[in-house]
Write a structure and sequence with these properties.
The protein has 279 residues and is of the alpha/beta class. The protein is 46% helix and 13% strand. The protein contains ten helices and five strands; from the N terminus they run ααααβββαβααβααα. It has helices at 5-9, 17-36, 42-51, 58-67, 145-159, 173-176, 178-186, 203-215, 225-240, 254-278; strands at residues 106-115, 120-128, 133-140, 166-169, 190-193. Strands 3-2-1-4-5 form a five-stranded mixed sheet, sandwiched between helices. Strand 2 and strand 3 (133-140) form a beta hairpin. The longest helix has 25 residues, at 254-278.
């Protein structure tokens, strides 16, 4: 037929309509996730797509995000919120190389600032390192010890931890003052503190603050204390704890991670009871 061999093997580069439709659906969903979670990277968006049933790899997600200008980074000036120039007792670091195996084994705490139109608002948080869940927080116009105390009381009220839970913080005066330490001792906490000037000793709390700034604070033009007081609780409770995928938890949210843990415990107890009754 006087045809070249290459003609026989030629395949059209045009993609079938079904494939194009699926790719369009993936792109639409990527854009939707990126709008809802503006600081999600391509890895986290890929995991969210997998949870929703999409079959796609991280390379395609990265390409789509790059082509549609959905990749971005934000850098902001750091402002010091820790004052360790005091005469209160400083405690040793009890969590170095220690990894929790259950909830309420290790709590970490920290304080950060949120800039508003004419001043600053301050946020104190306490996280459970097992699930990275925020278990207590407080918002104030003042960087006083009462801010940290309110966050601690909030965490104790919501979790009621057993005695022996480790409470870790920096050496700031808010955490070392007598009022704060008295509450920790009354509730049976083991007190732990980072080395002076070493943020890596409290890396989980620092990581949460970074997430909070990049995925919430920097995206909103807060003007008043009321703006902050209304928006931050929503982000912490309804977004970070409930829906945001956490890479160190296998890309599941903190609430889901804890629920899975307690379900496994309940299942083990049921199996043990069944085995005992059959014996």
């Amino acid at each position: 037929m006087n045809l070249s061999r290459s003609t026989y093997y030629y395949k059209s580069k045009d993609k079938p309509a079904e494939v194009l439709s699926k790719e369009a659906d993936i792109q639409d969903r990527i854009e939707g996730i990126a709008c809802e979670y503006s600081r999600y990277g391509y890895r986290r968006i890929t995991k969210q797509l997998h949870r929703e049933g999409f079959v796609v790899n991280h390379k395609k997600v990265l390409r789509i995000m790059r082509e549609n200008s959905l990749l971005c980074s934000v850098k902001r000036k750091w402002i010091k919120t820790t004052d360790s120039r005091h005469q209160y007792r400083r405690y040793p670091n009890l969590i170095k190389n220690k990894f929790p195996s259950r909830p309420n084994e290790i709590w970490v705490s920290d304080i950060t600032y949120i800039r508003i139109k004419t001043a600053f608002v301050y946020l104190a948080v306490i996280l459970d390192t097992f699930s990275r869940k925020v278990v207590g927080y407080a918002i104030s116009k003042s960087l006083s010890s009462d801010l940290a105390i309110q966050a601690l009381k909030s965490a104790i009220a919501s979790r009621n931890p057993e005695r022996g839970c480790i409470h870790h913080s920096d050496q700031g005066i808010q955490y070392a003052c007598k009022e704060y330490v008295d509450i920790l001792e009354e509730n049976g906490f083991c007190i732990s503190m980072s080395a002076k000037g070493n943020p890596y000793d409290n890396a989980m709390a620092e990581s949460f603050m970074k997430t909070l700034k990049h995925e919430e604070v920097y995206l909103w033009e807060y003007e008043t204390f009321k703006d902050v007081a209304e928006r931050l609780p929503y982000f912490i409770e309804k977004v970070y704890n409930l829906k945001r995928l956490h890479s160190s938890l296998g890309y599941v949210p903190p609430d889901e991670f804890e629920a899975s843990y307690f379900n496994n415990i309940a299942s083990m107890g049921t199996n043990l009871l069944h085995n005992y009754s059959t014996v």
